[in-house]
Amino acid sequence: MTNDSHAGQIIILNGAPRSGKSSIARAIQDEFEGPWINLGVDSYNAMTPQRYLPGIGLRPGGERPDLEELIPFLYAALYESIAIHAGLGLNVVADLGHHDSYSQPLGILADCARRLNGFSVLFVGVRCPIETIMQRREVAQEGRETLYLRAADDMPVPEPVQRWQDEVHRPGIYDMEVDTSVMTARECAEAIRQRLDLGIPAPSAFERIADGR
């Protein structure tokens, strides 16, 4: 799309729900120089009609085939918006949960990567052990029973939560990874800043994904 030296930097944070992506995105917005626009799943779903939710946040397992025809178009529109923002010189951080575990593979990540061809994209895998994710879900459960699945004696990790853990890091091609169980959001953001400042090796994960490598 562009090799303009004035284009903004793009950071894509990929991980399961409650892995800490949104906290890292906020830390980047608070700590990094210049304006950083958050175009992640929460902000995008806030614009999505209620009847089409969870939209791009549709979890793995092929649970809503009625929505799947729309999901690639939503992702395409989001990534085209990311490209427009970056093309105008704005930095973008997007916290997302990419997977391809629908009723049939949709190849969304590779399509998204191709839409950012020519931009500087740092693809960051946000890791977090399932035990920590379950602890965070327990905390978030208070007053929000309809949104978070609670562990039970007969199922310490609900199947949908385990599916996220299994599927969100496929194929697992990243420029760098962070673990939010051992690093705070600010520490993760600082590691990302150092990686960008170092610039070696140049970010290439999205190029490899786009090419099918």
Automatic annotation (TrEMBL):
The lineage of its organism: Bacteria, Pseudomonadati, Pseudomonadota, Alphaproteobacteria, Hyphomicrobiales. The active site is at D42. It comes from Rhizobium phaseoli. GO terms for molecular function: ATP binding; transferase activity. ATP binds at G15, A16, P17, R18, S19, G20, K21, S22. It holds the Pfam family CPT. Gene3D superfamilies: P-loop containing nucleotide triphosphate hydrolases (3.40.50.300). Signal peptide: none annotated. InterPro entries: CPT, P-loop_NTPase. This is Chloramphenicol phosphotransferase.
